[in-house]
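Table 4 source record.
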Amino acid sequence: MNTSPIGVFDSGLGGLSTVRAIKKLMPNEDIVYFGDTGRVPYGTRSNETIETYTAQDIKFLRSFGCKMIVVACGTVSTVSSKIISDINEPSTGIVFPSAGAAAAATKNGKIGIMGTSATVNSGAFNKAIKQYNPEAEITAVPCPLLVSLVESNFINIDDEVANAAVEHYIKPIIENGCDTIILGCTHFPLLSPIIKKHVGEGVALIDSGLEEAKYVKTVLKEKGLENTPEHKGVQKYFVSDKTQNFSTVAGALLGEDITESCEFVDIFKYI
């Protein structure tokens, strides 16, 4: 047993989809979450900038003695793989858990990927999927507007702006007959109701946050790092910009008021 917290980070709100899944699957685990809201989005930045941000985010989480580092950001997972692989603690990004789930879910071998521009350009999901299914046909589409829409709380199923953006990005994936779509950014599962509306019930959506949480549970169990069963998990949230908007949207997504457990942190101290 290990009572240290799980450290989770993302460029902003998106990683809360991973937190939500971890809380459901592992209610006895403590979580420290960092959302880099002062520098969101990561997906339009250069690889060098993303790697710099990644190193700072990890250094901050390590200050809490986290027993596992969870990269709940598709952009970081694909661009900063070298930095992630050098983490001493057990760690994971979203790529391989999601790729494995997609390869298992597809029936016709046609898989769509929705991600940030940096994620799609990296080709990391394509490479991972091919390891599971070399014959897979992949349609990867950069969706640069979607992170900003989620961060601004444009996630209602009837929102005209969000629907227009999703419809635009999803078109080539539908036209190519994909029966499975990886939501390759943890922001995107928060738009699942809208995406489902446009792709129909016959298409499987791979929730990258959920698949990552499943993998975290497996790792903790295999390494004997689970918390004591009777412990009730506690969450702490840190952001690099004002907390009010984050707390409001996060509270709605998580179904609880997190105002008292959300704090500002000067991430530049962790250079």
